Amino acid sequence: MSRKSDTIVPWIICVVMGAASIAAWRLTPHTLLADQLAPIRLDAVFPKQFGEWKALPDVQVMIPNPQQQETIREIYTDTLTRGYVNPQGRVIYLSVAYGKNQSDTSAVHYPEVCYPAQGFSLMNSEVLELPIGGRNIRVKRLLTAQGARTEPLTYWTTVGERTVLSGKTYKLAQFGYGFQGVIPDGMIVRASSIGTDVQKEYAVQQQFLDELVRAVPADFRTRVGGKDQ
Fold this sequence. Notes:
Elements: H1 3-27, E1 31-32, H2 42-45, E2 49-50, E3 53-56, H3 66-75, E4 78-85, E5 91-99, H4 111-117, E6 121-132, E7 135-146, E8 149-159, E9 162-164, H5 167-178, E10 182-183, E11 186-192, H6 198-215, H7 221-225
Parallel strand pairs: 1-10
Antiparallel strand pairs: 2-3, 3-4, 4-5, 5-11, 6-7, 7-8, 8-9, 8-11
């Protein structure tokens, strides 16, 4: 190989590697979707009174252990826990967590992890699509128990304006926003109640969530419940 070739080949390799680095940087999203939209304050987005439901004062839904509290602080931008009661005395516990950055290191924390960490057993789970807030939302129902306490719950998660319930759909949604050059925000909305008549509890939870999403300000509705499935 000539001396000229000895000079050109490394130069070409450097150019190619530099171009690859630039391309990789350009393909990596650096802009937060949340910074392009109206800021979310959960206590303002979710009303304290709507339909026949009214918030109860000073209700703790579930107190995380210290390790979980640290994880929550790292992952989420804002959290909200409330208890609601209707005129019939039915109580629903609402827990919402919102994160501005839904990257691989800041993904939502699922109830399948949170509840066992608090000593609950997971008895059953099912995924289904429910009419909630004027749209169809894909949700997961979990049946949990701790001693004599039976706590069915219904939840969903969002990435941007898309509902996701698994690692696969999460990654697809994340990639979709990544191709647009943005890092999506995300939210988990969970409603639970205490009772052994599980199907009745699920029915009340669906009614509660339907009225809740309808009461959310229109500008935030797709960020809470995603777009219609």
